[in-house]
Amino acid sequence: AQTVTQSQPEMSVQEAETVTLSCTYDTSESDYYLFWYKQPPSRQMILVIRQEAYKQQNATENRFSVNFQKAAKSFSLKISDSQLGDAAMYFCAYRSVEYGGSQGNLIFGKGTKLSVKP
Amino acid sequence: NAGVTQTPKFRILKIGQSMTLQCAQDMNHNYMYWYRQDPGMGLKLIYYSVGAGITDKGEVPNGYNVSRSTTEDFPLRLELAAPSQTSVYFCASSTRRGEKLFFGSGTQLSVL
Questions:
Q1: Residue B62 contacts by C-beta under 8 Å, 6 or more apart in sequence?
Q2: Residues A15 and A116: beta-carbon distance below 8 Å
Q3: Which is higher by pLDDT, A96 or B16?
Q4: Which chain A residue lies closest to B102 (C-alpha atoms)?
Q5: Rounded to whole angstroms, how far apart are CA atoms B101 and B23?
């Protein structure tokens, strides 16, 4: 079974600085999808970024980018020019490309709480 | 657009009581999900649905039931509430399974 590990329960960054959140995963599959979701204090989770494992190029979305290291099974999220609104819980998630049975559903890590200092 | 709407936002139950958490989406999504979020534990999938009339168990289905009579609605039923069901419950929907989930704002449930 696949697992997702976020080893940093909490992180802190100064406003306008850059921060990197770590995520590792365990899988025997060669193709899959990886995601980062943001959960602000309002609790409503929002998709931040998505990466397809067969793509070499790292995904980017404005100030958010990932460092995808397939061999190392690592999927870190970099937030550049951090803003106060970036303060939230961030969840890393894995999804198999297969759809049979329980496959095809997201597997979440435990999350990293990011604080942004003014 | 309302997106995914969950009601109620907060609820306190006594042990043994039952209740239904409501979830509705107005995006015509086929896929809907129920997750629970315990402190420090991430999200665990309770049940999911791939379309009206079709539901399946997720990782932690015990103590819960669901139905999907329409595309829009996906209620979660708790029977005989137990303290272990104290959690925050999230409903979500998507156009493709496991892809770009849209979440509701959650229901915080306490069982005392």
A1: none
A2: yes
A3: B16
A4: A46
A5: 14
Which residues, 6 or more positions from B63, have their beta carbon under 8 angstroms from its beta carbon? B78, B79, B80, B82, B84, B85
- pLDDT of res. A105: 84
Average pLDDT over residues B86-97: 93
CB contact under 8 A, A9 and B40: yes
Indicate which of A44, A61, A98 best probes the interface with B, i.e. most B CBs within 10 Å of its own CB.
A44
d(CA B17, CA B80): 5
What percentage of chain B exceeds 70 in pLDDT? 99
Is the distance from CB of A76 to CB of A21 less than 8 angstroms?
A: yes
Tokens of A97: 């490309």
A106–B45: do the CB atoms touch at under 8 Å?
Answer: yes
